[in-house]
Amino acid sequence: MALFFNRISKLSALRDNARFFSSLPQSPYLLLGSNTLRESQEGIIVNHWFFDPRTVERVYSKEKKLPKELNGQTLVGAPQGWVASVGNKDLTVHITDLYKPCVSSPRVISLPPLDFKPSIHATEVSLSTCDPAQNDFIVAAKFSECRLSVCKPYWDAKWTHIETAYSLLPASDLIYSKRDKAFYFTSFKGLYIGTLDLSNKKLKYQHLRLRNLPKIPEVGWEILDQCFMSKHLVESTSGELFFIKWYTQCIRRPYINKEDKDSEYEVIHSITKRFMVFREDGKSIDFCYMEDIGDLCIFLGSMNESFSVSANMYPGLKPNSIYYIGPGLGSYDLASGTVRPYNPPASGGPSSSLVRAPFWLHPADPIA
């Protein structure tokens, strides 16, 4: 991720017409960083800066007071437009709408503290509602590589940790299905789909069958076999379930230090090679390959809950596309198979700080 920010700090091919939110309609935004504006008697005043995929511009949130509960916490996930964080010392967990661009009075919901230190590099969090401040809800999270953690905050005083076999652990996306009122995740090798039964907090697994694979030359499959592949699940706005394979390729290239012409070493980074999208076939667990998802846009990230939106609702988004943040930032056109990389400005101001892993934020209605 550091290489990613080094790259975008050097490139300025895109517009940097920074603007502030006022009554702008919500949209999927990429949270990039925070600015500490000043300290006052009320507390620390901050704002946040984002990348807008519709306009390819940098945008800023309103000024807002940083809630004391969140000071010094580490961000660990972004479900339903909210952001989850964990305290580094007491391991307290909070979810907040602080990072929603139009929010002026942030809300913070406290969850039970963890009884172990999470594996920050592999965290994922999912919510059963888009407004946990108003509704009873359930949180499912992956804070370690061998267990799924579940909590119903208004009822539970502690987390329930469900052990999983290594070959079946939720290594990829953890999502909540509004259609089925259940949490889904993929297995380590993408051979199974796991379901969390909310009635008894037990896991169930079903074998994943992929049909109608794309017609790719043998040399093309050989290249994909050498790529790293991550597996993702996302539910469409109409309740359809999609399984996505994301192929990334490791690139090695020489780097020469301009100040020392004799100094040369390799720089290693990853690029997105291809996506494959499979749609659930009716109520079976079969998934069929497809290259046309209509006006849908899918948003994938390494630590935020995957989601989709209708491009018709957000002019400027490209339909039938996947917007991604992980190895690099860009969009992928499913029909043509072309990748469009984005290079947003890397600095929000002199006192800005980068988010450890940038999050896509699910759009939501503005809150005054």
Automatic annotation (TrEMBL):
InterPro entries: F-box_BR-signaling (IPR050942), KIB1-4_b-propeller (IPR005174). Residues 60-333 form the KIB1-4 beta-propeller domain. This is KIB1-4 beta-propeller domain-containing protein. The lineage of its organism: Eukaryota, Viridiplantae, Streptophyta, Embryophyta, Tracheophyta.
